[in-house]
Amino acid sequence: MSESPKGAMKPRDLVALLDRMTVAEATAMDIDVDAIGRAIDPRKVGRSDLSTMLRAFHRLASEGADIKLSGMGADTFAKLISSASTEQVQSIMVDPDLRARILDEVFRRMSTHLRQERVRDLHAVIHWRLTGGAGEGGYDRYETVIENGTCVVNREMTQQAKVTITLSPVDFLKLISNNASAPVLFMTGKLKVRGDLAFAAGLAGLFDLPRA
């Protein structure tokens, strides 16, 4: 899918095209996930259109198309979240399959955004609890283990946590895309911390967060 057709097409029409696209059509058009993400301005589409676009990517990939959400750059994703309303981000998180795919992809990318100079001698285990999930206690749970300059992500809690962080998936997406402040979320009760508060306060500084 070249730049010129996307440039001439209204964002909502582009979303509708993706929603009805077949695998054969996607293959023939050579879909560029990042380019489409850059072409969509959430402020110019409806409440559910952002989730419809991401769901279309997920559907086409599951049906065999060579389309991966990992093809969307971190800065592009951050721009989408920055421009999206809370309702638009919520519409992504209410779909269990899409929610899981997005969260898995975000956590998978953590290792690539780790600031090596700040974690070289650090060993820390962080447990994340995202509300409204299908797991134990109504949470989606992730464990990140920072050790030897790497960040390993687990879905099972394998080690004792230095800190446990609880927040909604909407606020989590805003936080990791540099569209929300951890101190503000904490002060307003939207982010809860159990464990080492000082470490939690500096956690974002261990990562090179994308810029919208």
Q: What is the topological layout?
A:
Elements: H1 3-8, H2 11-20, H3 23-29, H4 33-39, H5 49-62, H6 74-83, H7 86-93, H8 96-109, H9 116-119, E1 124-131, E2 139-147, E3 150-154, E4 163-167, H10 169-176, H11 182-187, E5 191-195, H12 197-201
Parallel strand pairs: 1-4
Antiparallel strand pairs: 1-2, 2-3, 4-5
Protein model, in words:
- With 212 residues, the protein is an alpha+beta fold.
- It has 2 domains: 3-109; 111-206, Nonspecific Lipid-transfer Protein, Chain A (2-Layer Sandwich), CATH 3.30.1050.
- Helices cover 47% and strands 15% of the residues.
- The chain has 12 helices and 5 strands.
- The protein has helices spanning 3-8, 11-20, 23-29, 33-39, 49-62, 74-83, 86-93, 96-109, 116-119, 169-176, 182-187, 197-201, and strands at residues 124-131, 139-147, 150-154, 163-167, 191-195.
- The radius of gyration is 18 Å and the shape is globular.
- Residues 2-7 have low confidence and may be disordered.
- Pfam families: SCP2.
- InterPro entries: SCP2_sterol-bd_dom, SCP2_sterol-bd_dom_sf.
- Residues 106-208 form the SCP2 domain.
- This is SCP-2 sterol transfer family protein.
